[in-house]
Write a structure and sequence with these properties.
single chain; alpha/beta; Rossmann fold; 2 domains; two-stranded antiparallel ribbon; 9 strands; elongated; binds adenosine-5'-diphosphate; binds magnesium ion
Length: 284
């Protein structure tokens, strides 16, 4: 969870051109238009395919219309990784004991709504059901956050924007988005990148030469054929990037693929062998 940063010029320790993101479709233009219209956005796709990087990139990229002529400003981004115990009050806030007093402490969503930040609820279906109430009131014409415990009806700052992500693979385990929630969002679908795009991503993220990056991208492509045949989790680009970072630091490709890809994907010895076999052939 990141606290909202004030809307100031980029701190010097950031890359001058922001978090790097390779577009794979119309997502930049759609997101910019959604931001301009203050429409909430839903990012749908398997794990490790660039959703979080995309939001970080967009938050960096977008700047207030009034400042268009100047250098891009960071749009403050508040990210919440949702999990099964996350409740509405974790998002909205709670009373805390401070000495003899109780003081109200805004949760991350309330901070974003108040200050005009972008709020990214990652894996939103993991959160408890009571969170849909607050999402609904923020994603229609009302744009309000009811803070039940203080009686406040918080009007969203004009620059507040809600972004959520959702992994449809989890629908199989009973976690899916209710239609009444889904219909409130502009939906952007994320899928695994093409071989060419994934090669570019792996090379950029790891510093590996293009030929080695291409081999890793081929590993990803081949392993995705195993999905549903013993492999339940998606083979995200993240795994290839991790293996590539190890290789770039001198770890033998075979070992790198085993520890960063095969073991990350499965506990099953036979499936793991099938994965390392693929790596052996493609990453000699
Ligand atoms: N289109 C992309 N552009 C840049 N990097 C990407 C892209 N897709 C995947 N990546 C890489 O994969 C990693 C995992 O992506 P991430 O955004 O964390 O996935 P998700 O949020 O979908 O689970 C990123 O840290 C980045 O290195
Ligand atoms: Mg993510």
């Amino acid at each position: 969870m990141t606290a909202p940063t004030p809307l100031t010029a980029r701190p010097d320790d950031r890359p001058p051109d922001g978090p790097w993101y390779l577009p794979t479709g119309d997502e930049l233009a759609v997101f910019e238009a959604a931001w301009a219209a203050r429409l909430p956005v839903l990012l749908r796709g398997p794990t490790g395919c660039g959703k979080t990087r995309f939001v970080e990139h967009m938050a960096w990229r977008l700047h207030r219309a009034a400042d268009r002529a100047q250098t891009p400003l960071d749009v403050p981004l508040v990210t919440v990784a949702c999990h099964e115990d996350l409740s509405a009050s974790d998002l909205v806030g709670r009373w805390l004991l401070s000495g003899d007093e109780t003081v109200w402490r805004d949760g991350p969503l309330a901070r974003a709504v108040r200050s005009g930040a972008m709020c990214y609820l990652d894996e939103v279906v993991e959160a408890r059901r009571d969170t849909t109430v607050v999402i609904h009131s923020l994603t229609d014409h009302r744009r309000v956050l009811p803070i039940e415990r203080t009686g406040e009806l918080l009007d969203a700052h004009p620059d507040f924007m809600l972004v959520v992500s959702y992994n449809p693979g989890h629908a199989a385990v009973g976690k899916s988005l209710k239609a009444s929630t889904r219909q409130r969002f502009v939906s952007l679908d994320f899928a695994y990148p093409s071989l060419e795009a994934e090669t570019t991503i792996v090379a950029h993220e790891t510093g590996l030469d293009p030929a080695t990056a291409l081999r890793l991208a081929r590993v990803g492509e081949r392993l995705r054929h195993l999905e549903g045949h013993g492999l339940d989790d998606g083979v995200g680009t993240r795994l290839l990037v991790h293996a590539g970072k190890l290789i770039a630091r001198g770890v033998a490709p075979r070992l790198a693929c085993d520890v960063a890809i095969a073991r990350a994907l499965t506990e099953d010895a036979a499936v793991r062998r099938a994965i390392t076999d693929v790596c052996d052939v493609l990453m000699p």
